[in-house]
Amino acid sequence: MNYPVNTIETAPEAARPTLAAAQKGFGFLPNLLAVMSTAPALLEGYLTLSKIFDASSLSAAERQVVLLAVSRENGCAYCMSVHTAIAGMQKVPVDAVNAIRDDATIPDPKLEALRRFAAAVTRARGWVSEEDSAAFLAAGYGPQQVLEVVLGVGLKTISNYTTHIAKTPLDAAFKPLEWSEAA
Length: 183
Prior knowledge:
Elements: H1 16-26, H2 31-36, H3 40-54, H4 60-73, H5 77-89, H6 94-101, H7 109-123, H8 130-138, H9 143-166
Helix pairs in contact: 3-9, 4-5, 4-6, 4-7, 4-9, 7-8, 7-9
């Protein structure tokens, strides 16, 4: 099945205002949102959930670690590339981003605990072990952050699965940061 990379003009009417706002905010219309606009409810839900995740107690860097870890665990090349760019804009340590991209250990122990926990939640579909939870809590996080990681996993699962199903093409703006699991 082919999924269109809509423009504001070709998207369903219900998605057009959301796409116009996204284009204004990003300076261009990301292909993921253009594809999601085929289902206006998906587009609105994804962007709303993204705003909610941004309001969590996790820092911008921590949120990007979660989103990158989930995208890596799900093998989402599109989201790995995009979030590498966003992580750079949000001053996430380069060594942390590269470690996630390379499936290596993040030098910062707290961010590494977060990466491991987000990956475990994703891999185990929420059925994390007591050891996984204990390691995350021992790193200085609390029950609120456990559940906020769940929120981040849900958010990224929406975009990861959408890009897998729709084979969303990578935007030209993110090509320099293209990622593949084989690389």
